[in-house]
Amino acid sequence: MKPDSSTDNNTVIIPPEDGSLKRFIPERKFSIKNTFAGLAYPNYRLWFWGQMVSLFGSWMQSTAFAFFIFELTKSPAYLGYVGFASGVPAWIFSFYGGVAADRLNRRNILYATQTAMMMMAFILAIFTFTGIIKAWHLLIFAFFSGITNAFDAPTRHAFVNELVDKEDLVNAIALNSTMFNTATAVGPALGGITYALFGPAWCFTINGVTFLAVLYNLKRMNLKKNIHHHHGNSVFKEVAEAVNYIKTSNIIREVLLITAMLSMFGMGLVTLFPAWAVEILHGDSTTNGFLQSARGLGAVIFALIIATINKYIDRGKYLMYSVITLPVMIFIFSFNRSLLISMVLLVIIGGLIIVQFNLSNGLIQTLVEEKFRGRVLSFYTFTFFALYPLGSLWIGYIAEHFGITTAVLINSIILFMFFIGVRLKNPHLSKAR
Prior knowledge:
By secondary structure, the chain is mostly helical. The chain has helices at residues 42-73, 76-103, 106-130, 135-159, 169-198, 200-220, 235-247, 250-266, 268-271, 273-280, 285-309, 315-333, 339-367, 373-385, 387-402, 404-425, and strands at 2-3, 12-14, 22-25. Strands 1-3-2 form a three-stranded antiparallel sheet, with no helix packed on it. β2 and β3 (22-25) form a beta hairpin.
């Protein structure tokens, strides 16, 4: 892209790090090859395929884990408790994770966190196989998983910047979403079927084995030496620097606020999938897997679309379209009682959710200075790992006392009112690219 002072229809506005507005003209040569541009980089290919295998196992475990909780407790509220337990470490460790991602070798951090997750999956499988597993064990497991995620998530997001050139960064982010949600589309269904045929312990075992793929590929990468920014400051001072940096960027600040509300009130529906499958649709673990897979299918479709067109769109505008449409679709979902209609709506809902996270991530990664990348992305991941569990606790409580459908309906209304407010108060966000 080249700077230009013209004001024709191809001009878009990109807010730089100081929050001011400058005009740029993007490259407009469209090619379907752009969909998979990131895979031209050998290191990114290793990351993509290793993560793809691992994520299939992770979604099998996640789906089995949620249904196992409901099977043990018969309580929608307990689903919220476990979600909350997984989020508590995010409040304590997320910003340490961001500082670590800026200070330390990111590949080494990922090797440590992925190894820890693998060991926890095997331990969970052993406890389940032997029959000593109790509901409170799952709370503890969720808590320790939250600790590893607090360090793993900001590092994973920042690590992509080391695998591709900057011009293909947004494409790689979109491909990450495609990878994640391809696993989301297939993994839960496999998990539901495996759970029904063999029990949850085998889902946990398979997940542990799949971590070997990403660990092996991390070892094979040939990475350039990366300069890490550390001047002897305390963690608190470095986090404070990131806070001040975020304050100077209106776009980054507002995008973080949108992802926070999406995590708090938009993702609560996912928490209730096991209860929805059993109590609303009168199904079982396989039904729960189908609901998760429908959401994942929509996310894959929309992520591939974003990967293809990301260079040619004003990301802020499409972000605003998605934030207004999503709560409307969740509102409609709350009234349906059909598995088929549920799956169709979840394809759309899953697509809209990934559009929001994908475009938000892309805007942040494009605008942030490299020396702040890990810390700013820790705020981004904090909005999910810390606020999603709070949202789980909230929607689980409402579902327990007022009904599952009422809980979904209330969340959709809160989300719609907030996003309308964002649209009215911050019209300039739709011009961000």
